[in-house]
Batch of 2 targets.
Target 1
Amino acid sequence: MQTIVVRDYSSKDFKDVAEIDKEVFNAKNPAYDIYIYLTYGKDILVADIGGKIVGYIVTMDLDQRSGKIISFAVSEKFRNRGIGSRLLKSAIERLKSYGKSQIALEVRVSNKVAQNLYKKFGFKISGIIPEYYSDGEDAYYMVLDLGDQ
Ligand SMILES: CC(C)(COP(=O)(O)OP(=O)(O)OC[C@H]1O[C@@H](n2cnc3c(N)ncnc32)[C@H](O)[C@@H]1OP(=O)(O)O)[C@@H](O)C(=O)NCCC(=O)NCCS
């Protein structure tokens, strides 16, 4: 099996990240999503297998003390082999290195796989945001207190 490398996004990864966005989130215009990530994202980390991007995670600053995960996905064929955990761990470490004491995110109430992964890393549900998604689904607001670790 080829080695998985988690590294910073570079512009040559655009096409692969756009493809994952389309596949995973059914993005109508993945280029627009990437524009958002590049505009608001502090870091975009990618999982690279032999030059092919199979997953990514985007974080942003909320304020000086807190950060947020704004997008996170692994291509379906590559799931359940620890790539999501590697990306999440690297994103948490990166935000920690910036002195953040809290990381927040939103997740669909139906998305138990992602919720379980976040819980494994210490995130806790701190609230519910009604009809957060465009299809009307609610979101859980989850928070990781880095001071707890
Ligand atoms: C959430 C996501 C990024 C996880 O990626 P991944 O590479 O599969 O993550 P991992 O391999 O590290 O697995 C994480 C956990 O999920 C579990 N898992 C993965 N796929 C699963 C599935 N289809 N059913 C049940 N559990 C599953 C794994 O068992 C693992 O738990 P464990 O470590 O206790 O065994 C990926 O499922 C994904 O892209 N989902 C769609 C987009 C999404 O939900 N993004 C987050 C939005 S908030």
Target 2
Amino acid sequence: MNKINWGIIGLGGIAHKFVLDLQLIEDANLYAVASRSLEKAEEFAIQYDADTFYGDYESLVNDEFVDIIYIATPHHLHYQWAICALQNGKSVLCEKPMGVNRHQVAEMIDMAVKNKVFLMEALWTRFNPAINEIEDRIKANEIGDLNYLNADFCFDMIDSTKDRVLNMDLAGGALLDIGIYPVFLAYLFFGKPLRVRAVGRKHESGADIQTAISMVFPNGMASLSCGFVSKSDMRAHLYGTKGKIEIFENWHESEGFSINDKEYHYPKQGRGYTYEIKECHWCLQSGKIQSELWSHENSLDLVDILDMIRAEIDLQYPFE
Ligand SMILES: NC(=O)c1ccc[n+]([C@@H]2O[C@H](COP(=O)([O-])OP(=O)(O)OC[C@H]3O[C@@H](n4cnc5c(N)ncnc54)[C@H](OP(=O)(O)O)[C@@H]3O)[C@@H](O)[C@H]2O)c1
């Protein structure tokens, strides 16, 4: 079997989780890892049995044996390293948000198209089996016409030792970090909103720590929120003319839901990153430069909505 050689840049929290799911995929090979620290890269490579490691990102991008690069850095670096990888003919799975604003995402997509290489945002919830099943149930009219969605994503991370979540230079803040998930859910079920309103609270760093969002669509409304100051139930609700769906906690990585209180369970393979990895493999093996399930246009739409919300709460990053 021809294995697909993965390279990972940025060996932080998500890289450690992602790699465990990568090991569950038969035709995936963890080929190379890169960190700003050679010692850290070596340690990671030994821990997860990578073929090689680098003490800088560029060397990994230039390695001729790398097929696809998973960009797992803080937000502000997604654009720079995706562009660099795509220019070098490497496929890219880029952590969310794909870019910090529409301008960045559009340029990343242009580069993928120009170089005919695969690019996808790592919006893993899009590939979650329970979420996919809910889509089918709604299409099958099980709750009638969907007209209201309510979802949040709130964790208590305010004392986080993680510098990146509140650091404006790294495009920190709750909206881009976790608010992107409820915004995604509303977009998945309703499409692009006609109107968006948002209010929020900021940390002294300027990063948003609590944001409430209302959206109006041609056929319904969504009420969303995100925050770093308390843990919410992390259940999402979809209401239609014939009933409701509740997505169990944590809804963005859910293993089940109920329809009018009858439960359905969909256990995941691994932590749930396996599905986006399989989608990348399928696209690479089919010669596609984008996923049909989470396309370039979907990433552009999503960042457009995030830009609208940011305009509402007056959130601009210093490098923009
Ligand atoms: N899909 C999910 O479930 C999920 C979950 C969490 C986070 N994420 C996303 O994954 C990305 C990384 O998040 P994370 O939680 O893994 O962050 P993290 O633990 O802070 O790790 C990020 C890594 O990026 C590298 N890096 C490069 N420049 C940096 C800088 N100036 N400051 C800090 N780190 C820098 C570091 O790796 P080296 O030192 O090795 O270079 C660091 O370990 C973000 O886009 C986030 O939104 C996704």
